[in-house]
Design brief:
This protein has six helices and seven strands. The chain is elongated, with a radius of gyration of 26 Å. The protein is of the alpha+beta class.
Length: 197
């Protein structure tokens, strides 16, 4: 299991800070958040090392890359987060977790940012990108989609049917055309990002 650790940031010693020996090493006695704390000194002795409020842990993902993740301010909770992350990596390596699960839980706004980058790299014009994104956002807002897992065909169909309500024909045609383009754009974006619905 990954061992939680704290990150230390070097801070200048306050005027008249008391330097004491603790466990054979020099420490500075400083007041942090209203209480006196012993903090390690830097190697040159001009700064003290303030620990972070949160614990961190390192984990090797399924691709073998070591990643540092932020835990909680509670050590035991961070140990549980690290153990859960390690279990997820083991499941992913064994093929028990679907890689698309991560995509389904991401907010659609993140997917839209990725899709924007894709459109830019493909050479799309600014107008095309702007219209595409506004159509996607309009469909997401109207149907209440927040994550990719929320996207349902019935919701889009109901939204399109509401647009086809009793209105003047010209307005209806414009709205329906925009809606169907928005829906096609959403699915095209999903296909290009590799999200299966």
């Amino acid at each position: 299991m990954p061992r939680p650790f704290k990150i230390y940031s070097a801070r200048p010693l306050p005027e008249g800070a008391e330097i004491v020996q603790h466990e054979g090493m020099p420490h500075a006695k400083v007041k942090l958040q209203g209480r006196w704390v012993l903090c390690k000194l830097s190697k040159d002795g001009t700064k003290y090392l303030q620990p972070s409020r949160c614990w961190y842990y390192k984990i090797r993902d399924e691709k073998g890359i070591v990643r540092r993740r932020k835990g909680c301010s509670d050590l035991k909770a961070t140990e549980q987060l690290a153990a859960e992350a390690e279990r997820k990596v083991a499941r992913r390596r064994a093929g028990l977790i679907d890689p698309a699960e991560e995509h389904l839980s991401r907010p659609l706004q993140d997917h839209l940012r990725d899709y924007t980058e894709y459109l830019l790299s493909k050479g799309g014009t600014a107008r095309h990108i702007r219209e595409t994104l506004s159509r996607c956002q309009r469909a997401f807002r109207a149907c209440g989609f927040i994550t990719a897992a929320d996207v349902k065909t019935e919701a889009i169909t109901n939204w399109l049917n509401r647009l086809r309500g009793p209105r003047p024909v010209a307005e209806l045609e414009t709205e329906a055309k925009a809606a169907s383009i928005a829906w096609r754009t959403v699915w095209r974006a999903a296909e290009n990002l590799g999200v299966k619905a």
